[in-house]
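Table S2 (continued). Query chain:
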Amino acid sequence: MEESYYHIEVLKSTFNQKILKNHRYSLRAFSNYLKIDPSSLSQILKGKRKFPIRHAEKTVETLCLNEPDAQKFLKSVLLAEREIKNSAKGKPMDWDIISEDKHFKIIANWEYYAVLNLIGLDNFDHKIASISDRLGIPTDLATQIITDLIENELLKEDAHGKWKRMRPHLFTINETPSDALKEAHSQELNKACESLYKDAPEIRGFYSATVMTNQVALKKAKKLSLEFLERIIKIFETGPKEEVYQLGIQLFPLTKEAKKEMRD
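Corresponding output:
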């Protein structure tokens, strides 16, 4: 089964099981169960429409999927939503989803992702002191981060005492409210503000624009932002790996929603 179709097969299997228990069970009842529009669900089951990613984590809970199946379901939705296809080299990026329930601290705190990337640098010597020096964090925090990442199977130590990432790229569902992601983005913005005043312009980049838009264009822009993010990650991962950078794309409203005119 292709990974991008796994969630459809799970939905079909669940629907069929409910029909076997109750021959009068309908698609409308199933849509109410999943809290998805019936016509949309019909198209999803036929593979003609993408599953709404904002409902993915809630659907996993509704279906009571175990952790491995839940991760496969979420990854399948993500693959279909983002339309990951073979690149010019024939290989799409390998993304693994991590969830807030299991990885709250790792998602919420910038130091964890920084360490995961730091150990991949060509000039890193795989010592706690090096993590502390390069990231400017206490050694006890660096030790705790390594311990947490190993316990969560995101990191392992080889026979030579070197740390290695277990999953090359991590992704979190960002279309649903998440306290972990709010904290993560808050920390990232604070770090960006520090860099703005501390680092020389030649080693940082800050670009922004104030634009007029609408909801249709906003949806297209968010999709394009994700595609751009993946493309630029591939650029960064080409050639020698010397430093760890934080890349952010911020898009947020400056205006309040206009009040609709009341008519008799």
